[in-house]
Amino acid sequence: MTLDSSPIVAIATAPGRGGIGVVRVSGKNLGTMVTAICTLPQGAALQPRHATYTNFVDADGSVIDQGLALYFKAPHSYTGEDVLELQGHGGPVVMQLLLARCLQAGNGIDLRMAQPGEFTHRAFLNDKLDLAQAEAVADLIEASTEAAARSASQSLSGVFSSIIHTLVEQVTQLRMLVEATLDFPEEEIDFLEKSDARGKLDTIRSSLDQVFQQAAQGALLRDGLNIVLAGQPNVGKSSLLNALAGADVAIVTPIAGTTRDKVTETIQIEGIPLNIIDTAGIRDSADAADDVERIGIARTWAAVEQADVIIHMLDACRGPTLADEHITARFPDNVPVMRVWNKIDLSGHRPAIDRLDNATHIYLSATDKLGMELLRAELLRLAGWQQTGESLYLARERHLIALGAARLHLNAAAEHAALNDHALDLFAEELRLAQDRLSSITGEFTSDDLLGVIFSRFCIGK
Ligand code: GDP
Ligand code: ZN
């Protein structure tokens, strides 16, 4: 991502048609642009934080649209810069016209199109948000379940960041204590006892463990569980998906081989997104009719390797077929497999769960909704979901990695303390490393490369 301080512009609302569409501009010296586009009374300017009803006009004075102009003066804006929002009618053509008009009128101030996430990146650089909060903006927009959205909101409002700050604060205090002692070598000997450094470290370690666990739950709400639904045509994969979703999301049909492509459906159990890939009864690629099908099959196997769990579905009336053995042989060793025996309403089995030969077997009926709760509970168990009843904050894999690394440094510090080897300098160094890792979560020590990666995944206009 190239960073300069040019004013930027983008359509901030989603593509497509809507009641209102917003073009947003951020940067310095927006005044002349405003007077060129908006039909304000002679000599007037937009009043910060007031909505002004106006025409939006072309260079020749012809009206593009009518709407509201909003102006936010730096630093009291989303980005921390001057921000202008033009709210017009939410049609793709009128929005494009308004955008083009902004670029034209902003030519003199080097106005350019914003890159993905650039508004939020500026907000971060201007200290309007820390990095974890900025990530929460994207996660709130992307949230696929209500629980994920609520947790992202928590993170955005700074709940997660302040927990991290508290940890950093505690580590810093302990470190200052240790470093002060380093200057007086004769006192090092009983420093650990006198200052209760060990006790303090243990307290920090247990808070960190707690934060890690909560963050792991938050990451689960964000990323969910990737599930591959495999099995022969007509065993009831689509029906199971529908039964789990509680709505008709997948096409259920009695004609074999209808689900031709890899289809991902996100459904939820207790707010956890389950990203389910409903595979067509995977055929051998040698049997594939054409290249398109072969590519589809290759993609499906790639998805199988990335899965958190494979649901291998079978017909409880028929038992496993030769084709099932072929499928099973190709399952990767490192992905847990759940065998779901469907249609027990016909076979006469009871709803049940059995853990046998490295696989869990569940007996159910997707259409008659028998045994579905066994499957739901098993999926939640595999996901590592613990019902705490507490409100969560959303977290990302990146945060978990940083927390995990910080934990290792604190463990190493504890070892130095336990050895009583007078290696207080090493003890202090581990604290410093832990502190750096924790700070990277909120972005105090974060490389430009990482920032680029994080913000480039945002949508344009955010
Ligand atoms: P898929 O090809 O594996 O996706 O299978 P579908 O979900 O399309 O189901 C194939 C047929 O089996 C449909 O006619 C379903 O109504 C039927 N079916 C699915 N699950 C059950 C079940 O639990 N009991 C009974 N009796 N029929 C089922
Ligand atoms: Zn199907």
From TrEMBL:
Record keywords: Cytoplasm, GTP-binding, Hydrolase, Magnesium, Metal-binding, Nucleotide-binding, Potassium, tRNA processing
Record: residues binding (6S)-5-formyl-5,6,7,8-tetrahydrofolate: R24, E85, K128, K462
InterPro entries per UniProt: G_TrmE, GTP-bd, GTP-bd_TrmE_N, GTPase_MnmE, MnmE_dom2, MnmE_helical, P-loop_NTPase, Small_GTP-bd
E.C. no: 3.6.-.-
Pfam families, per database record: MMR_HSR1 (PF01926), MnmE_helical (PF12631), TrmE_N (PF10396)
Segments forming domain TrmE-type G: 224-384
Cofactor note: Binds 1 potassium ion per subunit.
Entries under Gene3D superfamilies matching the protein: P-loop containing nucleotide triphosphate hydrolases (3.40.50.300), Probable tRNA modification gtpase trme, domain 1 (3.30.1360.120), tRNA modification GTPase MnmE domain 2 (1.20.120.430)
Keyword Ribosomal protein carried by entry: no
Swiss-Prot/TrEMBL cofactor(s): K(+)
Cellular localization per UniProt: Cytoplasm
Binding site for GTP: 234-239, 253-259, 278-281
Binding site for K(+): N234, T253, I255, T258
Binding site for Mg(2+): S238, T259
Domain of life assignment: Bacteria
Family: Belongs to the TRAFAC class TrmE-Era-EngA-EngB-Septin-like GTPase superfamily. TrmE GTPase family.
Function in brief: Exhibits a very high intrinsic GTPase hydrolysis rate. Involved in the addition of a carboxymethylaminomethyl (cmnm) group at the wobble position (U34) of certain tRNAs, forming tRNA-cmnm(5)s(2)U34.
Oligomer and partners: Homodimer. Heterotetramer of two MnmE and two MnmG subunits.
Name this polypeptide is given: tRNA modification GTPase MnmE
Organism: Actimicrobium antarcticum
Gene this chain is encoded by: mnmE
